């Protein structure tokens, strides 16, 4: 039996690319849903399923082709990786950054305010005595900048970062105006 380029190369390639696309879309859709963005998720879901149907149709038409199965699995793995890369580049959503510092926090507060970040501070008690908690909500893409500011003013600060699903009545990160409603990411100008 002669080598058939369509069966052994093109069909697996179509399956692989379809899986990369539908799994990438699925990864982004799930991330959007987990962050409370329900507007675009159904649209992404529609395209995800259409592309998946194209891939699965090719599999059922070529059940005797082991390369089609390998392409299906490899496309799933590559699509997961690609979806995470895309989401990382888009930097969707908001983060809560908390820095616990042992010394005076004025330099950190000033640096964050100059970078146009809203900041709240608390006095607390740690294992070794009094501490200050500096709290800010930022866009995900601003995280490297904020970490750099914290490290520059307080190199030994304890820093924690968490996703923010919703927030109300505060300063919009980097925008310089007040937040006036629920939920994130539907920020709008305040009163």
Describe this protein's structure.
The structure is a single chain. Helices cover 50% and strands 17% of the residues. It is an alpha+beta fold and 191 residues long. A 4-stranded antiparallel sheet has the order 2-3-1-4, with helices on one face. Helix 1 (5-34) runs parallel beside helix 3 and helix 4 packs antiparallel against helix 5 (143-153). The relative contact order is 0.14.
Low-confidence runs (pLDDT<50, min 5 residues)? 174-191
- What is the spatial order of strands in the main beta sheet? 2-3-1-4
How large a portion of the residues is in β-strands, by DSSP E?
15-25%
Q: What percentage of residues falls in helices of 4 or more residues?
A: 40-55%
What gap, in angstroms, lies between the N and C termini? 75 Å
How large is the radius of gyration? 24 Å
String of helices and strands: HHHEHEEHE
Shape: elongated
- The overall pLDDT, averaged over residues, is 85
Structural class: alpha+beta
Major β-sheet annotation:
4 strands, antiparallel
Count of helical stretches: 5
Number of strands: 4
Key traits:
alpha+beta; 5 helices; 4 strands
Short description:
The chain is an alpha+beta fold. It has helices spanning 5-34, 41-61, 66-90, 106-114, 143-153, and strands spanning 94-101, 120-126, 129-139, 158-164. Helix 1 runs parallel beside helix 3 (66-90) and helix 4 runs antiparallel to helix 5 (143-153).
């Amino acid at each position: 039996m002669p080598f058939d380029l369509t069966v052994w190369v093109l069909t697996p390639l179509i399956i692989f690319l379809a899986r990369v696309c539908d799994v990438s879309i699925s990864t982004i859709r799930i991330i959007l849903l987990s962050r409370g963005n329900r507007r675009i998720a159904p649209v992404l879901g529609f395209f995800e399923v259409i592309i998946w149907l194209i891939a699965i149709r090719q599999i059922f038409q070529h059940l005797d082709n082991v390369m089609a199965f390998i392409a299906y699995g490899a496309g799933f793995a590559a699509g997961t990786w690609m979806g995470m890369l895309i989401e990382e580049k888009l930097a969707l959503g908001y983060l809560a950054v908390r820095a616990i510092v042992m010394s005076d926090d004025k330099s950190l507060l000033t640096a964050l305010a100059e970078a146009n970040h809203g900041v709240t501070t608390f006095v607390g008690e740690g294992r070794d005595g009094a501490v200050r908690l500096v709290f800010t909500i930022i866009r995900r893409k601003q995280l490297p900048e904020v970490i750099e500011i914290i490290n520059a003013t307080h190199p030994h600060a304890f820093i924690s970062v968490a996703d923010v699903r919703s927030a109300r009545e505060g300063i919009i990160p980097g925008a310089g105006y007040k937040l006036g409603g629920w939920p994130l990411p539907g920020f709008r100008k305040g009163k």
